């Protein structure tokens, strides 16, 4: 089944290739119904965060799902520490989620933690060693933030960095992707569908339309532009986090796995069109 396809982290953990996110559209909203709809559609990877203000409803969905907890991949992210230790903060998340552990625990952003990154990361390793999180990583980290926690060479790498990634930020993100490849830090994308949901009138639009029609011919059935963007991420072996309020679109995302791979020429054409415009929706600090 499509949802059992995984991407492998440097430590050998297998992450389901696509996740359903409870941020953006579900931010500060009850996510239970949407998460249950996603699980029913076939999603087993769920992406939460303290900052989304809905870990409790994500937890209710996990408790009420037809799929056992062990078959799910659950991510949450550290918000502001507010005087707590990392362990106290993670235990708060686990209580809201109704779980004994999360599969992935991320530092949501380096912003506000600049001077403490090395210490916070040390505490991340400790909670992982205690079994409260199976894997640890970061989000919205630039090269300079990664360097801060890696400096001295006396630590573990973050298993992944969750960042905005689509063709309109590729050029700006390439040095970070190269750095991560060099260190074995996997990339997890969010905002991958921005060229069809938000910035729809950019230089990629005609190229995406043409490639979508070519891929549909090879597939012998209709393909959507969103699926082609997911294939573009898949071609780079990148883990995807997306979301939708619609059952039909959730199925469309999962079905992208059955769509033929993009050719190297198609990937290059998307890269080239995307590089003509820089458009970032989230985390403006990434350009600093
Ligand atoms: N770490 C971070 O700082 C961070 C930041 C942002 C997001 N995230 C995570 O990533 C998740 C996904 O973020 P995202 O919303 O930016 O993801 P995305 O995959 O770029 O966009 C998903 C949105 O695209 C819309 N969409 C899909 N196909 C479309 C089409 N053909 N035309 C128009 N709209 C279309 C969907 O709307 P419908 O509901 O109408 O289908 C959905 O709301 C979040 O929930 C969160 O978990 C993390």
TrEMBL record:
Active-site residue numbers: 52 (proton donor)
Amino-acid positions noted as binding substrate in the UniProt annotation, renumbered to this chain: 108
Domain NADP-dependent oxidoreductase: 20-273
Keywords of the record: NADP, Oxidoreductase
UniProt cross-references to InterPro entries, sorted A to Z: AKR, AKR3C2/3, Aldo/ket_reductase_CS, NAD(P)_OxRdtase_dom_sf, NADP_OxRdtase_dom
Annotated site residue numbers, Lowers pKa of active site Tyr: 77
Signal peptide span: none
A GO term, aspect molecular function: oxidoreductase activity, acting on NAD(P)H as acceptor
PANTHER family: 2,5-DIKETO-D-GLUCONIC ACID REDUCTASE, NADP-DEPENDENT OXIDOREDUCTASE DOMAIN-CONTAINING PROTEIN
Record-stated family: Belongs to the aldo/keto reductase family.
Protein's name in the database: NADP-dependent oxidoreductase domain-containing protein
Species of provenance: Sphaerobolus stellatus (strain SS14)
